[in-house]
């Protein structure tokens, strides 16, 4: 190294040391003035059920819980909905977008290298810094005032993340991506439970129509029987009109039930995103037996089982990282910029050895007076975090409430179903007695059929209870997360 090079290198090191010392001395010029205390996440003891809420079977829903019903029609509908439902497609697109955002933030913290190629046709001002070049003196190498400057080379920059600002920003974007993934699972749960609710609503209505048809046949037989008696002068017309009114009322109920099935189908079509002629035929099948389960204790496990809670948890964690990034913005930032290439005022000299240029520019940037921008940014990040914590706490309490309400209602419906089954058996005894008398010739057919009406009425009541049990059972599956399982949650530590 020549002596001039040594002198330049010493001067460079001296300037860098002086610059760094000045930065450290001024670090305290931009101070954090207004940072409120973080809110507290929900306490674990609040995530529990009352001691009197339990079901006959303990446990969490399994993955693909709907396959436990053993209904191929239901399996096909849910699989199709999870693949093609518009809301499911939107949720997946949000996940892809979040992943792109993570890659974008990560890219900003890595080494940036660009290739430069520039041609600048300029007129040099005689009164400016380059005034001598405005002369037209070929003997001195000046051919002004017009020049065509060329630059070709590589430029690079690297931000040195000493205080973790960039790392915090990457962590925040990763938190949002995790939240989007959990939200996609929450949409899957929403779609699958909605399809199951609609499907079993259709099956319940099919059975309702079947029982109503039996009532209609009894009413039609009664009408014909009373008509025959009126024709023989054995009864007044009043009995005929009463029987016909009952028949018409049952027919109206059948029509309403058919309209209900059509409404269910249209709701299912919209959920699946199916066209008018692209919805499979749903054949009547018996309603499945109740298989609802409820864990004996909830505790923190509920947080890992509910995708919506996991999504909110990830948003809260991301807000903590944004606070860290907002705090790191108060400290000095360091970067290094470099350029290597060729630069000449005459294109003919561009690719000569004398035109080579190398720049190495370490830099430090220290906020001193910013008009309160950094404190406002930190205050906004803190407020958003506290808001998310409160929303998360409320969501956890709502989740526990949903499980408690649904589990309690299922217990009541199970008891009602047992009592109603006994009632059906009790009224069936009277019908069987009337049928026995008819077969022995001790009673007429009309009396035997009239004895069937109370049985059908009680069967209708039992069908309503069974439909409600299925609906509540699916609601409980949803409240318990539908088989979703994330990593066991750790306690949130606000910063």
Automatic annotation (TrEMBL):
Highest taxon of source: Bacteria
A Pfam family reported for this protein in Swiss-Prot or TrEMBL: OEP
Keywords for this protein: Lipoprotein, Membrane, Palmitate, Signal, Transmembrane, Transmembrane beta strand
Transmembrane segments: none
GO molecular function: efflux transmembrane transporter activity
Topology with respect to the bilayer: Lipid-anchor
Chief location category: membrane
Cell compartments where the protein resides: Cell membrane; Membrane
Annotated GO CC locations: plasma membrane
Family: Belongs to the outer membrane factor (OMF) (TC 1.B.17) family.
Protein name: Putative outer membrane efflux protein MdtP
């Amino acid at each position: 190294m020549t002596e001039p090079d040594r002198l330049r290198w010493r001067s460079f090191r001296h300037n860098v040391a002086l610059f760094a010392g000045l930065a450290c001395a001024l670090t305290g010029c931009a101070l954090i003035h207004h940072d409120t205390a973080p809110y507290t996440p929900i306490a674990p003891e609040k995530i529990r059920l009352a001691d009197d809420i339990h079901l006959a079977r303990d446990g969490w829903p399994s993955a693909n819980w709907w396959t436990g019903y053993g209904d191929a029609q239901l399996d096909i509908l849910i699989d199709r909905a999870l693949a093609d439902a518009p809301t499911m497609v939107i949720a997946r697109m949000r996940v892809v977008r979040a992943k792109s955002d993570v890659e974008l933030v990560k890219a900003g913290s890595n080494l940036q290298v660009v290739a430069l190629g520039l041609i600048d046709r300029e007129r040099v001002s005689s009164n400016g810094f380059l005034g001598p070049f405005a002369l037209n003196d070929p003997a001195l190498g000046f051919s002004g005032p017009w020049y065509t400057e060329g630059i070709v080379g590589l430029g690079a920059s690297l931000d040195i993340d000493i205080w973790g600002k960039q790392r915090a920003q990457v962590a925040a974007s990763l938190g949002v991506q995790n939240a989007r993934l959990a939200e996609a699972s929450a949409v899957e749960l929403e779609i699958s439970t909605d399809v199951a609710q609609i499907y079993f609503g259709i099956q319940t209505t099919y059975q309702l129509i079947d029982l109503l048809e039996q009532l209609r046949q009894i009413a039609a037989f009664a009408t014909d029987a009373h008509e025959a008696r009126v024709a023989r002068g054995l009864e007044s017309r009043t009995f005929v009109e009463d029987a016909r009114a009952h028949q018409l009322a049952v027919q109206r109920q059948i029509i309403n039930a058919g309209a209900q099935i059509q409404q269910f189908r249209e709701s299912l079509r919209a959920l699946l995103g199916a066209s008018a002629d692209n919805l499979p035929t749903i054949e009547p099948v018996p309603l499945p037996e109740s298989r609802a389960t409820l864990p004996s204790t909830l505790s923190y496990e509920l947080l890992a089982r509910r995708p919506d809670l996991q999504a909110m948890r990830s948003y809260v964690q991301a807000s903590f990282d944004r606070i860290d990034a907002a705090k790191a913005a108060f400290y000095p930032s360091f970067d290094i910029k470099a350029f290597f290439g060729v630069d000449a005022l005459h294109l003919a000299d561009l690719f000569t050895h004398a035109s080579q240029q190398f720049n190495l520019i370490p830099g430090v940037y220290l906020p001193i007076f910013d008009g309160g921008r950094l404190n406002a940014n930190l205050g906004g990040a803190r407020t958003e975090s506290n808001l998310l914590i409160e929303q998360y706490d409320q969501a956890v309490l709502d989740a526990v409430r949903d499980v408690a309400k649904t589990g309690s209602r299922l217990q009541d419906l199970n008891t009602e179903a047992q009592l109603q089954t006994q009632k059906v058996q009790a009224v069936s005894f009277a019908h069987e007695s009337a049928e026995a008398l008819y077969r022995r010739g001790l009673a007429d057919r009309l009396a035997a059929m009239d004895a069937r009406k109370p049985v059908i009425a009680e069967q209708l009541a039992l069908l309503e209870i069974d439909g409600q049990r299925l609906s509540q059972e699916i609601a409980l599956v949803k409240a318990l997360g539908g088989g979703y399982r994330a990593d066991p949650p750790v306690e949130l530590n606000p910063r």
